[in-house]
Design a protein that fits this description.
Largest sheet: 5 strands, parallel
Number of helices: 6
CATH architecture: 3-Layer(aba) Sandwich
Order of helices and strands: HEHEHEEEHEEHHEEEE
Distance between the termini: 9 Å
Structural class: alpha/beta
Helix content: 25-40%
CATH topology: Rossmann fold
Strand order of the largest sheet: 1-11-6-3-2
CATH superfamily: NagB/RpiA/CoA transferase-like
Number of domains: 1
Number of strands: 11
Shape: globular
Radius of gyration: 15 Å
CATH class: Alpha Beta
Length: 173
C-alpha cells in the first residue's frame, strides 16, 4: 500500500468511514455485492463504476435514475465511484453529471463508494489542479468526508440527519 493510500485510509477512518482494501477486482465486486444484498439501490451508471462493479448490481433492486424524488428517497444504498480521493482529509470528490447523480451519495442511509488507487491525491489543491475539464462537465462538485453529522440538537453529535448515516469505501488493487 502506498503512503498516500495509508494516509487516506487513516483520515477516512478518523471521520467514521468504514474502509475495505481489496487485493483483486473480484474481491471488490464480492465486497460490494455483500454490502448491497437485496436493498433498494441508487447507483451511478455501470460504466462509471470501476472494477466491473456494475455487473453485481441486482437489477430488481436498482431504482431508475429518472424516478421521482420520493421513490429515490426509498433507496437504502447509494453506489458511486469517485472523481478523486483526498489523502489529507479522507474525503471523496464526486462530480454530478449524466450517469453520476449526486442523489446516489446523498439520499440513501448507506453511501458505498468504490475507489481506484490512481484516484488518490495528496490534498484539495491537487484534486482541483487537473479538474478544469471535470468542473465544466459537472453541475456540482461534492466533497464527502464521512457520514452526515450535526451537533445542532443540544450540541449532541448526531449522524445521518442531512445525508448518509454510514459511508463505506472499497479500495481496489
Amino acid at each position: 500500500m502506498s503512503e498516500l493510500q495509508a494516509q487516506f485510509v487513516a483520515e477516512a477512518r478518523a471521520v467514521h468511514v468504514e474502509v475495505f482494501e481489496e487485493a483483486s477486482a473480484e474481491a471488490v465486486r464480492a465486497r460490494v455485492a455483500g454490502l448491497i444484498q437485496d436493498q433498494p439501490l441508487l447507483a451511478w451508471d455501470a460504466e462509471r463504476l470501476p472494477y466491473g462493479v456494475g455487473r453485481v448490481i441486482p437489477e430488481a433492486t436498482l431504482l431508475p435514475p429518472d424516478a421521482p424524488t420520493e421513490v429515490k428517497a426509498s433507496a437504502t444504498v447509494g453506489l458511486t465511484g469517485c472523481d478523486g480521493a483526498i489523502a489529507q482529509t479522507g474525503a471523496l470528490v464526486l462530480g454530478s453529471r449524466r450517469g453520476s447523480p449526486r442523489s446516489a451519495s446523498l439520499l440513501p442511509e448507506l453511501h458505498l463508494a468504490v475507489v481506484r488507487p490512481d484516484q488518490l491525491v495528496a490534498d484539495l489543491a491537487a484534486a482541483l489542479e487537473g479538474s478544469a475539464e471535470l468542473l465544466t462537465r459537472c453541475s456540482t462538485l461534492n466533497l464527502v468526508a464521512g457520514p452526515s453529522r450535526t451537533a445542532d440538537i443540544e450540541l449532541t453529535l448526531t449522524l445521518g440527519v442531512h445525508g448518509p448515516r454510514r459511508v463505506v469505501i472499497v479500495i481496489g488493487p
